[in-house]
Amino acid sequence: MVSVENEARKGRGPWQWFAPTDTKEERRLILKLDLLILPYAFLMFWVSYIDGTNISNAWVSGLSDDLGFHGNQLVHFQTMSTVGQIIGQIPSAIFFSILPMHWIVPGTQLGWGVFTLVQFRAQTYGQLMAYRFMIGFFEASLFPGIWYVLGSWYRPDEIGRRAGMFQMGLPFAALTAGLVQSGASANLDGVNGLAGWRWMFIIVSIMTFPTAFLGFFIWPGTPTMPNKIWIKEKDLAVHRKHFGAMAKNHVKGKHSWALWKGIFLDWKIWTFTIYNNLLYFSDPQPWSGYLLWLKSLGRYSDAKVNSLSATAPGVGMLLVLVINSFADWFGRPVAVLVAQGMNAISTLILIIWDVPEAAKWYAFNTYYADVGMNGVVFSYCQDACRRNDTERGIIVVVINIIAQIFRAWAGNLMFATVDAPRFQKGYGTCFAAAISIMGFTYYVRYLYARQE
Prior knowledge:
This protein is mainly alpha-helical. The chain has helices spanning 4-9, 24-67, 73-89, 92-95, 101-118, 125-139, 142-153, 156-167, 169-187, 196-218, 233-243, 257-265, 267-282, 289-296, 302-308, 311-330, 332-352, 357-366, 373-384, 389-414, 424-451.
């Protein structure tokens, strides 16, 4: 199959960071972009995931008992964040190609930092539901925004490993959230009359604000609207040379009825919507099954539960990087087979459930393999949509919105808190989606080849 990605990969070993054809100036620019984009993208993703998921750590650390919460209210909080993300992404489909990304992403991060902080004062179910909605609303532009910037600066053959590096922020955040809550429970519980879980919300908001302000200066924007603190005209000239014929697609967005009609009549938006939905449905880790299982064992303190919950994301960091590197080295279908093969094994163990406890430890500690698939699916989408920046921004947002709409109701149906920690319906769905996405990848590959 002929593609930009495969052509650029020719003669390039897995250990090589640059393509053999890259000039000295191109390599210098790529390294500069790596230093501006990857550490900060990792940092944003890390902070975002902590702010978005720390409700689960708080739940098992006294929040539910202190405020009298029960039943499925944990999954309600998780779902409300998703609803906020769905609504918040709608304007992103328009703004990404017409406003500077080094304004949009850090600006919205300030918003979710504020609502992360005010959670510490929550007293009622309604208050916390409102705060979770606003956190999701302001977080909405982050994930598609990072992908939009990556696709603007990097060629399709360069995205895989870089996606893995920033997406390591997700398991690292899950790991850190557990350790932060463990420390708060052990050392701050009762200080100034506040429970440990309330201190966690204060701590993670303090982590959020400096990251947001840093973004206004560090985040490079896009080639059409660059952050001129770092990106000079000579950098843009080198970038145009590096991208070759694809550089002509970097134009400021112009929205029209014809553009939107063309997008919705084309194969890409519907195919990648299905692909991304399969990815979302195959992912078991957002529903806190591991954390709730540890709690159900009844043998660990709150601090120990949060500490042990860090093992799965710790393993997940390595899995995310390896799987996305496989996409660069051996092609995306190989990466999909590795990631979803591991995911299918772990979810099958959890479906059976009546297995030795060691098998459950293995299953929970490997189910972050699915997270590595984000980079594969979205890099495929970036590649297929590379001919039109405005189209690319719209499709990335739309496929993410539709997947989150399905997740919003699916969580309540398949991962109801009252079914914890077994979640038989949830893990069954994840297993079926994992098998399906392996086959669907080859259909995507066929359509992509036909387009090329």
